[in-house]
Amino acid sequence: MKTIFEISREGKRAVTFAPLTVEEYKFDEALERKEDLVLPAVAEVDLVRHYMALSKRAFGVDDGFYPLGSCTMKYNPKVNEEVASLEQFTMVHPKQDNDSIQGSLELMSDLSGALCEITGMDAITLQPCAGAHGEYTGLQLIKAYHKDRGDDKRVKIIVPDSAHGTNPASAVMAGFQVVSVKSNDEKGVDLEDLKNVVGEDTAALMLTNPTTLGLFEKNIEKISEIVHNAGGLLYYDGANLNAVMGVVRPGDMGFDVVHLNLHKTFSTPHGGGGPGSGPVGCKAALKKFLPNPVIVKNGEKYEFVNSEKSIGKVTGNYGNFGVMVKALAYIYTLGGEGLKNASQTAVLNANYLKAGLEDLYPTEEGRHCMHEFVCSLQKLKDETGVSAMDIAKSMIDGRIHPPTMYFPLIVHEALMFEPTETENKATLDNAIELLRGLYKKAFENPEELHSAPHTGQIKRPDDVRAARNPILK
Ligand SMILES: *Cc1c(COP(=O)(O)O)cnc(C)c1O
What we know:
By secondary structure, the protein is α/β, with parallel strands linked by helices. It has helices at 44-56, 78-84, 87-90, 102-119, 131-148, 166-173, 191-197, 220-229, 250-253, 262-265, 321-357, 378-384, 388-397, 425-444, 446-450, 463-468, and strands at 123-125, 156-160, 177-181, 202-208, 233-238, 257-260, 280-282, 294-298, 301-305, 373-376, 404-405, 414-417.
């Protein structure tokens, strides 16, 4: 398919301007562009067909089942998009006078309150624009907390070996050293190993609960005690909140800092490079370090307040406002009971899918999962040569988006499924049937799986080259 620039033809236009009825304004010459802007010139009909064709080559949540583990690709109600598209929200300018944006400030303040309630935190910043950005911000809060107490020895962040890759990366970005803690047989944190690595140099432990394997860390209270007794803090990677909303709160589990991914759990799709939002909540002891400014209600008026001890701003202005509007609309639509129901259904769906596949696609732990589960295809590969990659690519031909593959690294030939709560039984049954069929085919006709997908727009891209030599424009 050609790019919009390749179909460009001199003189074509998709817009017609009304005749000028006012006097022409001459800009200061210094402000004038010296060369013409390189813009594609296409007629409206070609423009529409180009983007329509492009959209049909993609696969999104609105096209079909998208069980991409650790990404919570659920269906997002369109009403929330509509609310976020209201001109009263889209036309607000961040530099506007406070008096003229009281409604927007109220919205951000209400969202902050709701997220504090959901997570059990005392204060929150909405500034970070992604999960990893939230991790970085949260770790800066932890750094500021220790520094403010004159405790300079705390330079290490403990991260379990099952952690999401962003955790150790963010810790390094924030200037910490990463210490890995081993998993036990139940794929939780090994308490003995934790006792060995924790100490006077521990700034914090970063933990996802449920973990990236979709398992609830049952020892969380013991872990919290060990880390706190050593003077460290607990950081909660809340990107997997979809499993626990309204059921348990990180604040009650002993966590001091948490980030959420509004672009997973709260009605904005994750991935695709769109705007995200990774709010960071904290306990009262860390509040004064939050990025400036925070919104405070003073009498009837919402105001921006700056704290002297703040770690500073972490983004331009206040973060991705549109994502916040969608999140609050979603929370208000569902209410407390609805959010709890969403999480419980997400867990039920994951267990239904797991039960339908487990004899062929085994998980290592074999116990009930939370919102997602990871199975290993090592045995299938040993017996047939068909890999997790081959199965994932073959799913494209069945019009199901492949799950997350080869992650977490502690599971060989891993496939990680997260069906989410928005899928019905028929969709899950269809996925089970497709995957069981592919398993059978691995023995009968492995070649067909090695060369899949047969219908996709792209077959097997060289992903090593894509990573080593990215062409980003
Ligand atoms: C998605 C995810 C992240 C990172 O979020 P981004 O918005 O992609 O930066 C971090 N931790 C976990 C467990 C995740 O699933």
